[in-house]
Design brief:
The chain has three helices and seven strands. By secondary structure, the chain is α+β, with helices and mostly antiparallel strands. The chain is globular, with a radius of gyration of 27 Å.
Length: 209
C-alpha cells in the first residue's frame, strides 16, 4: 500500500471514532467559548487574572469614652490588573460596605466597637481622579440622610480613606451630580476641596506628616 492511501485510511478511522463519540467535526478551527468560566480565572481578554489584593486603610468611628473618633482599619481590597494599588472607587466601595466582623483599629488599642456614620444605602456613583490629584466623588441621595454631628464623621470617613491613597491630594463631593459643601471636623461646611487635615480634630490618632 502506498503512503497516500495509508494517510487516507488513517483519516477515515479518526473521523469514524469522532462520530462514534458524539464529537462534531468542523471544517475550520473554532474558538472555545468561555461562557460559564468564573471571572476570577479570566484576565484582560478572558485569561487568568490572579485575584490580587492590596491593603487599604479605611476609616470608621469608635467611641473613646467622651466622643466618637475616626480610626483607621486595615482591610484587604481587590487591586487593579497590573497594579499593586487599588483604585479610589474600589477603596470607597469597600468603605461603604461597612464594618466587617473581627475588624479592629490599626493604630489604637481602643476597645469600643467600630461603627460607620455613613447612612445605609449610600452608594458610590462615580469616583474620578484628575491629573492634579483631586478626587471627585459622586454619591447617591442616601448620603443626604446624615445629620450633625454624624455628618462630619461620615464625610471624614470618606475623605480620610481617600486621602490615604498615594495619588489623591484632596476630595470634592457631589450628590447625584450636584455639588455639595461637606461638613468638616469643626462642624463648618466648605465649598473647597477637603483633605484629612480638615478632620484632624476627629482623629483618634494623629496622622504622620
Amino acid at each position: 500500500m502506498t503512503r497516500r492511501p495509508r494517510l487516507a485510511l488513517a483519516a477515515a478511522v479518526l473521523a469514524a471514532a469522532a462520530a462514534a463519540c458524539g464529537i462534531p467535526a468542523d471544517d475550520d478551527p473554532r474558538a472555545i467559548s468561555q461562557e460559564g468560566v468564573p471571572e476570577e480565572v479570566q484576565g484582560d481578554d478572558g485569561a487568568t487574572s490572579g485575584g490580587e489584593t492590596a491593603i487599604a486603610n479605611l476609616y470608621f468611628s469608635s467611641f473613646d469614652g467622651n466622643s466618637d473618633r475616626l480610626v483607621a482599619v486595615e482591610r484587604d481590597v481587590p487591586s487593579t490588573a497590573g497594579s499593586s494599588a487599588p483604585t479610589p472607587a474600589i477603596v470607597l466601595e469597600s468603605l461603604l460596605d461597612g464594618v466587617q466582623p473581627g475588624e479592629a483599629p490599626a493604630d489604637t488599642a481602643a476597645d469600643a466597637p467600630l461603627a460607620t456614620k455613613i447612612p445605609d444605602g449610600t452608594a458610590l456613583r462615580e469616583a474620578e481622579l484628575a491629573g492634579n490629584g483631586v478626587l471627585s466623588v459622586d454619591l447617591n441621595a442616601a448620603i443626604s440622610g446624615v445629620t450633625t454631628p454624624g455628618a462630619s464623621l461620615a464625610y471624614g470617613q470618606m475623605v480620610c480613606t481617600a486621602d490615604e491613597l498615594e495619588d489623591v491630594t484632596s476630595v470634592r463631593f457631589t450628590v447625584e451630580g450636584s455639588p455639595v459643601a461637606p461638613p468638616t471636623g469643626d462642624g463648618d461646611t466648605t465649598s473647597r476641596t477637603v483633605t484629612c487635615d480638615d478632620y484632624a480634630a476627629l482623629l483618634a490618632t494623629p496622622r504622620d506628616g
